[in-house]
Design goal:
The chain is an alpha/beta fold. It is built from seven helices and ten strands.
């Protein structure tokens, strides 16, 4: 057992295309002693691990399963358990990577893990490595500018009531809608009502084999394609 503690690295692995991994992310993943990967209890495999599979071939992989529930007590228990598992590795002198899709600090459950780790590991041993977000990648793939000059940008998750988006869409020049999931049809209806449907971009599974990027949101009605998706809405240019 090493006398000195190891380092913890929370690493954003980007939206899905392994060529969008940063050089720093690849270097650190290759250098660590073990790699923690999150996995939902409703899925057979980890999306983050799939992205880096060519980089972690010889690494010790530790899967952490998280419940897909809203029960705060169950979630807190899961995050506390995960943080303590990581703490044990770091205290043993191991350098540890924790992988998360997109960017670690942008609508990521990594934020909850970080809160727990901050109480267990010295801050100088915690390092967060940024990753490319799905909306950045989607905008680039579609050559669709997110923001220009003095325009205003909002990045928000879909709320329970889609109607709550109306004032936000009225206020900002560009709105990125995250966590679309089961609200896709309701969002499309709202965008139609606000005459914004023609200025919207839908993207799902960005960087994966089943990637879909389209301006034709009407074709998505009833498709159920809201999972791992974003919608970028831009106001029409002023005339």
């Amino acid at each position: 057992m090493n006398s000195e503690p190891g380092n913890f690295y929370g690493i954003g692995v980007g939206p899905g295309d392994n060529e969008l991994l940063t050089l720093k992310a690849v270097r650190i993943i290759k250098s660590v002693d073990c790699v923690f990967v999150p996995k939902a209890d409703t899925k057979e495999s980890s999306t983050a691990l799939e992205i880096v599979k060519d980089v972690v071939a010889d690494k010790r992989i530790i899967e952490q399963v998280y419940p897909m529930v809203r029960d705060k007590t169950r979630l807190e228990t899961a995050w506390s358990k995960a943080a303590n598992e990581i703490k044990c590795e770091v205290e043993s002198g191991n350098n540890v990577a924790y992988l998360t899709i997109g960017d670690p600090l942008t609508f990521s459950t990594y934020c909850y893990l970080l809160q727990h780790l901050s109480k267990l590991i010295p801050s100088q041993n915690i390092h967060t490595i940024p990753g490319i977000t799905s909306y950045n990648a989607a905008a680039c793939l579609a050559n669709y500018p997110l923001i220009e000059q003095d325009e205003k940008l909002a990045i928000i998750p879909i709320s329970k009531e889609v109607s709550e988006l109306r004032p936000i869409l009225n206020t900002f020049d560009t709105v990125v809608l995250m966590k679309v999931a089961k609200k896709l049809d309701e969002v499309i209806k709202l965008l139609e009502e606000m005459n914004l449907i023609e200025n919207s971009l839908f993207a799902s599974y960005v960087g994966f084999n089943n990637e879909l990027i389209t301006h034709d949101l009407n074709s998505l009605k009833g498709s159920g394609k809201g999972y791992l998706s974003v919608i970028i809405v831009r106001k029409p240019p002023h005339t």
